[in-house]
Write a structure and sequence with these properties.
alpha+beta, five-stranded antiparallel β-sheet, 6 helices
């Protein structure tokens, strides 16, 4: 039972951004302080210090994750990408078969903030989190709300 509780507390990441490049964890050893990851842009295996990855990495989000965070449908986000309305994010592909037709977009936190700004500029702000709410969601901060007299919930904190 204690082992299960400890294992659940570990933060597991598969995809991450480091130095603006998307990586996939192939092997991770906290004891040896090393991460072996596949760099999709460089198309080769890279070895990093686990502590440096933890300190400097940005989490990678799939289109489905971004659509849940922003409250938009996944197809809408994909249309923004395909129509060139937002910067094209990096793709991940099967490592054993780079020429495969299967691929998936991975977005960084800065990409999500850019999409958020595009949606605001386009005027589609209904049910969209504010920028400070979005930053809190991405950093897994606690979001506190208060209920106004007219029944609406308003966030009451300053994002870091």
């Amino acid at each position: 039972m204690a082992r299960k509780n400890r294992q659940r507390l570990r933060k597991k990441f598969v995809y991450f951004f480091l130095n603006g490049k998307v990586h996939k964890v192939l092997k991770l050893s906290r004891a040896k302080d090393e991460v072996i990851a596949w760099s999709y842009l460089d198309k080769k295996r890279m070895m990093y210090s686990y502590s440096q990855v933890e300190k400097n990495m940005e989490k990678a989000y799939s289109v489905v994750d971004v659509s849940k965070i922003l409250g938009r449908h996944r197809v809408t986000i994909e249309e923004y990408i395909l129509q060139g309305k937002i910067k094209k994010p990096q793709k991940v592909y099967p490592i054993g078969n780079p020429e495969s037709t299967w691929s998936k977009y991975m977005l960084s936190e800065s990409d999500i903030l850019d999409i958020h700004q595009f949606i605001i500029d386009a005027g589609h702000i209904r049910d969209l989190p504010s920028r400070s709410e979005l930053q809190a969601i991405l950093k897994h901060n606690l979001i506190l709300y208060t209920k106004t007299e007219d029944g609406k919930f308003v966030p009451v904190w300053k994002a870091e």
